[in-house]
Amino acid sequence: MSSPVKIWRQHKKLHNYLNKVGRLVVWTKIYVAPAGFEHQVPYLAGIVQFNGERLPLQIVDCEEKDLKPNLKVVTVIRKIGKAKSEDVIEYGVKVKPVQGGSRV
Amino acid sequence: MRIKVAGIGLTKFGELWDKTLFDLAEEASLEAIQDSSLKPPDIQAVFVANMIFSKVSNQDHLGATIASQLNIQGAAFRIEGACASGGLAIHLAIQSILAGTYQNVLVVGAEKMTDASISEVTSALMGAGSEAERQAGLTFPGLYALMAQAHMQQFGTTREHMAQVAVKNHYHASLNKKAQYPYEVTLEKALNSPCICSPFTLFDASPITDGAAAVVLTSASTNKGVYITGSAVATDTVDLSSRKSLTEIEATRIASQKALTQAGVKISDIKVAEVHDCFTIAEILAMEDLGFCEKGEGGKYIEKGITKLGGKIPVNTSGGLKACGHPVGATGVKQIVEIAQQLRKKAGLRQVEGANIGLTQNVGGTGATVVVHVLQS
Fold first, then answer.
1. Least CB-CB distance to A58: which of B120, B137, B139?
2. How confident is the model at residue B123, as a pLDDT?
């Protein structure tokens, strides 16, 4: 996972990404995760179109069957990966459907 | 441009528990040097292609480590460009000959991937992605799955189209003793294997592989043998979502047009090709972006059997990354070895008849680096 100083730099910019609405372009459900994400499998990640930019983001609070191209999604702040007991907990941006189901 | 492929060497690809990275690099290198009829002291420079070894071991300084192991005291470099490291090393070695600095050079691509755990390897490979992609928990299978989904949405490409790539490349690998998986698979098996990331099953992905490949390149100019006549690199954003299109690897188009122009040939002149099928969708994209078929038609093009051995343009006769294996730093060099064997008419059971012009396409990341070479005999 990321170093404390890297997390400190990134966290300062997080507020810029709050409550942005975008549209889902493509997504995938990942069963084989990189280190730090193993506990989340399977999980959803995709590419979201915002005003003027596209970003790769994890998709939360829904199931794969709820997803379709152009689905309206909104950014939320969530924990990224899993910090070890003495690591700094890393937060970052994910998206959830605007009229999503129950929290996963 | 005429650079002679004077010698080639290739190890078995697979899970080689008893071999180190250095065993593999040495085996392929000595085979290539012997094949060239040169001696190690005749080699003035060594270009080592490797991607993840420094992440999964404690050994850096691979240029000097491998050169000294071969008793070569000339210049030595380690080149990294994700899964295009091998192609990039070939390109740089060619430039060093064209500049007149060296006359005889060795390019060796090697990777030792099976010592690390799957999640360690997955993380090491994601070093070739963007920070945002890593934060999203994306993996390379995941990123190519996104490209596959975009292609399915836009052009109606199906899971069957993609699985056909795996079936074809396994058939080719069944004729290649060096391949990691030298056996055939059925379409049903490919389609019904476990999902690794939707829409991909296990058989849409290339494996984790140990292996090495080497070539000796020289400035010698006679009419005999195999020559590299075109070599070009193009780049794009490392982050997939920032590209103009999710259904095209533009760097493939740019690099292939440059390489073909250098060689003075057209894509329709190519008789055999090795392309970067790290995932089945990648071979479909390569067919389109290299210009073998129209954009969006790649799936149907492969389904027709045109790119299978016996078809008009056999693609990935080695078995490709899918079935021959994908030791990431070695792949771009292995592609040159396979095409050189084809043009020397030494490819045995997988020989393409009348092969006199071949092409290789080596991709780093999701298309941020693409290296294309044209070879002629």
1. B137
2. 86
Cβ neighbours of A68 in B, within 8 Å = none
- CB-CB contact of B138 with B231 (8 Å): no
Region A50-67 average pLDDT: 95
Residue A102 confidence (pLDDT) above 50: no
ipTM, 2 dp: 0.93
The per-residue DSSP string of B43-68 comes to --EEEEE-SSHHHHSS---HHHHHHH
Fill in the DSSP letter of residue B205. B
Instruction: Tell the residue number behind the tokens 């080592």, with chain if given.
Output: B48
What pLDDT was estimated at residue B223? Answer: 75
Best CA proximity match to B282, nearest among B136, B126, B141, B138: B141
- Identify the pLDDT of residue A104: 40
- Domain spanning B3-117+209-218, CATH architecture: 3-Layer(aba) Sandwich (3.40)
CA atoms within 13 A on the CB side of B71: 6
Report pLDDT for A10: 86
Rg (CA), chain A: 14
Q: Where are chain B's structural domains?
A: 3-117+209-218
Contact B198, A59 (CB under 8 A): no
Instruction: Note whether B115 and B58 are within 8 A (CB).
Output: no
**Partner A, chain B 102-141, Cβ-Cβ below 8 Å:** 118-120, 122-123, 126, 130, 132-139, 141
Distance CA B99, CA B101 (A): 5
Q: When comparing pLDDT for A101 and A23, which is higher?
A: A23
Does residue B132 sit in helix, strand or coil?
A: helix
- Give every residue of chain B whose pLDDT is below 70, as ranges: none
Q: How many residues make up chain A in this entry?
A: 104
Q: Is B242 exposed, middle or buried (0-12, 13-18, 19+ CB in 10 A)?
A: middle
Closest by CA to B23, choosing from B295, B296, B246, B212, is B212
The CATH code belonging to domain A4-97 is 2.40.50
Return the structure tokens found at A13: 């910019």
